[in-house]
Amino acid sequence: MKKFLFRFALLNLLACFTFVSTGCESRESTTKPAPGTETDLGGAAPIDEAGSTTGETGVNVPEPDADPKPSEPELDPDGNPVESKVEAKPKDTELAKAAPKKGEGQPTSAGKKSTITGDWTMWGGSPSRNMVNKTTGVSIDFKPGEGDEPGENILWVSKLGSQTYGNPVVADGQVYVGTNNGGKYRPQYEDDLGVVLCFDEKTGDFKWQLSREKLPQGRVNDWPEQGICAAPCVEGDRLWVVTNRCELMCLDANGFYDNENDGPVKDEKDTDKKDADIIWSLDMIEDLGVFPHNLATSSPVVHGDYVFLLTSNGVDEAHLEVPAPRAPCFLAVNKKTGKVVWEDNTPFDQILHGQWSSPAIGEVNGQVQVYFPGGDGWLYAFTPEGDGDGNAKLIWKFDLNPKDSKWELGGRGTRNAIISTPVFYDNSVILGVGQDPEHGEGVGHIYRIDATKTGDISPQISDGKKGWKDNPNSGQIWHYGGEDVDGKLTGKKGELLFRRTMSTVAVADGLVYAPDLSGFVHCLDLATGKRYWEYDMFAACWGSPMVVDGKVFIGNEDGMLVILEAGKEKKLLDEKTFNSSIYSTPTIANGKMYISDRSQLYSIKVTD
Predict the structure, then answer these.
(1) Cα gap 448→437, rounded to integer Å
(2) Which domains, ranges and CATH numbers included, belong to the chain?
(3) Burial of 25 by CB count in 10 Å (0-12 exposed, 13-18 middle, 19+ buried)?
(4) Res. 32: pLDDT tops 90
């Protein structure tokens, strides 16, 4: 069976954000752009810096070695901006000075205090989507068990579905994961479903399940066995999630354990304590005319009274037309009522494939911006409140593909869609492009964009003569990708510098950690885009990196959790083998690490 694009992480999926392919034609992996569409690094940076830069931007660019200012307050387990210090117990083993051999554990920060941060309430941990956690004293002295073995420092393991691409979310003593019905937690359902499972954070005990039947249209709108790929966003006793049926749902975090059926939706099919309590539901197919391609997967984000999401509107089964170009692609919805505040269909009939990414939020010079990756390969920044008449209000837009790139079916072209989630950092946005993983390898690009500008801030604009010219209003700070034309950086002429990606970057201490689908993890300088190192995981990467306590955690398709040292020098700390593929991203919450592989959820002791 073909696998749909959002086996991810979504991851970012995208978020996001992870899928399995459409019914696309057979695909051949590509290692070079099509002839005549080669891309260079652009700008003023030399090839040995592995990136291009443009000056005169409005971004406050730090020096490469400067410690960044924390963009999010540290939280206690109740979500309050207060950190608690816990004295860690001394370890018997000192921190190794060299990378251990494969499979060896390595305790860290022996004898030092641990900073324990709080919940992880959404995909990316915060509206900026930067997956950097401020927990310290994190030990990597754990080992997943094989089969029914308990493992070492594994607190609990809970069964998920047979295919899991959702990222764990932890809030108020509960853990939520999107998956399929392979766990069979609700005996009344034997068939394929999309589900959100809720577990007790301390014990891993199953609490309740949201059960959503598959759409009758089949794989063109709701690919079999993929379940719910979106991560919920939790605030207080409410959570919002996009289902496989292209619904935005608001759920009661307490389920029916409070002995109340909350909200305007009172006629749920399932009302046992082990079922989800639906507050309200927005059916984007029935109410808005959306045509999701293969699956709806966007992980929503909340700001004020609004919840923001992509609709996953896409192409038809033949991949030739957009059946619903006038249907919205981007939505702002009242989080309390489920009513649409504003909508936007800017990509219109230029959607390349699907729209599986997720929005992010940043604040620039006192103005909040919402970032929507479009299905046309552009990133759009809107005001959160819209224009007041039910439409979006554009601040700026940026084309993440070179103007000479071409989209071709089956991944044979050089133009890419966006599956990753934008990351806001220091008045800028970092984002890469990619395609369905079954389209194979191909040229990729990642950009850092100045979010202080307005209008079309793409690197090039039309010259009015069916050609292109450099944009004097360009928001490109740097670009990394294309080919190493002369081989100075990679040692091989024509080698791809950066390949297609579904992963969302993480930014910490002046560095950007950016994996690509082929399994290469790139460490780039935040200020310049210069590449410090590249690490080959030797397996496809669908998830995204989590940076915590000087370490970079990232999973791969071989079921390996790779742990790298954060910094300008490449150093492998350890590798942990799980029972199946890791398509999601590790979550750190309340001093524990949560990882979902293909069929199990792990709670891991990483602090004392």
Answers:
(1) 24
(2) 114-279+583-607 (2.40.10.480)
(3) exposed
(4) no
